[in-house]
Design brief:
The protein has 279 residues and is of the alpha+beta class. The protein has one domain (28-256): Clam (outer membrane lipoprotein receptor (LolB), chain A), CATH 2.50.20. It has five helices and 14 strands. The protein has helices spanning 41-49, 51-58, 154-160, 189-195, 198-210, and strands spanning 4-9, 12-17, 31-32, 60-71, 74-85, 90-96, 110-115, 118-122, 133-137, 164-175, 178-188, 215-222, 228-238, 245-255. Strands 3-10-11-12-13-14-4-5-6-7-8-9 form a twelve-stranded antiparallel β-sheet. Strands 1-2 form a two-stranded antiparallel ribbon. The protein is globular, with a radius of gyration of 18 Å.
Length: 279
């Protein structure tokens, strides 16, 4: 479903997924944990396992997403911003595609609606009328839509932490002015799928099979309520056009918990039923 565009910049060809792929957010300065602050690995793993449940208790939040991939010496970044309802597992993001390396006009933002098992996109292009939505079954995507849409579903990202196998407590820091604790570790997508909610289980199962490895490194920043403020995953997949493994950094920032997040999914008549144009 992902339309590919190839643009040449400085002799390098960059494969840009129009509906997805790529972004990371800037890092934070971290206060290293002293001996009195260090937590046993088991305690850190347990706290991370409970992070998704803490978001459900929070109800909703504003979200900023970013995805970054470096290929052919060029870094491609996609950014998103919107709201998410963790109780209904629905969200709305405006995804901004990067400007073409050749300096062409900026792409129109893609509106994405996130729902259990589905991704809806508007302004999709590729022959889709401007007033129609494209619906994608996330379980049919080899990455479970952790990368394809250009933004990782915030609750799916949190549920990956249910598959945390190892984790260490790094130290205290701040994210957007909020005091947080920084944890670093690795999740197993297969384990995460077994512990995920019904809405995300099949998609994460697909990702466990579709990525180059089911082990995904992460950095998580949790506030005093155990809620995720920042979460960065580093996914690896096999490039279909070139040999080798491609690394994608996906970052989610959450803030303003409890804000209204009324997300209305498209009616059946508003969903495009035609064929998507090939690149």
């Amino acid at each position: 479903m992902v339309a590919q565009q190839q643009k040449r910049a400085g002799g390098e060809v960059v494969a840009v997924a129009v509906a997805g792929l790529m972004v990371c957010a800037g890092g934070c300065s971290v206060e290293r944990a002293g001996a009195e602050d260090a937590r046993p690995g088991a305690a850190s793993v347990d706290k991370l396992h409970r992070a998704a449940a803490a978001l459900e208790r929070a109800g909703s939040a504003k979200a900023r997403t970013s995805m970054e991939m470096a290929t052919g010496g060029t870094r491609v970044t996609i950014r998103g911003e919107g709201v998410y309802d963790f109780t209904k597992q629905t969200g709305r993001l405006k995804v901004l595609l990067p400007q073409d390396p050749a300096g062409a006009d900026e792409h129109r933002p893609i509106t994405e609606l996130l729902a259990p098992g589905a991704l809806f996109m508007k302004n999709r292009g590729a022959g889709v009328p401007a007033d129609k939505w494209v619906r994608v079954d996330t379980a049919t995507l080899p990455d479970g839509n952790l990368v394809t849409g250009g933004a990782t579903d915030p609750f799916a990202a949190a549920e990956l932490l249910r598959g945390t196998r190892t984790a260490t407590y790094v130290g205290k820091t701040e994210v957007a002015g909020a005091p947080v604790r920084h944890y670093r570790g690795t999740v197993d997508l297969g384990v995460a799928a077994k512990s995920a909610s019904k809405g995300n289980r099949k998609a994460i199962e697909a990702a466990a099979k579709g990525f180059a490895t089911a082990r995904v490194p992460f950095d998580a920043y949790l506030d005093e309520q155990g809620r995720i403020r920042k979460l960065r995953h580093r996914f690896s997949f096999v490039n279909g056009q070139q040999e080798g493994i491609v690394a994608v950094a996906s970052t989610t920032l959450l803030y303003d918990f409890g804000v209204p997040a009324d997300v209305r999914l498209p009616e059946p008549g508003d969903i495009f039923a035609g064929k998507i144009a090939e690149p």
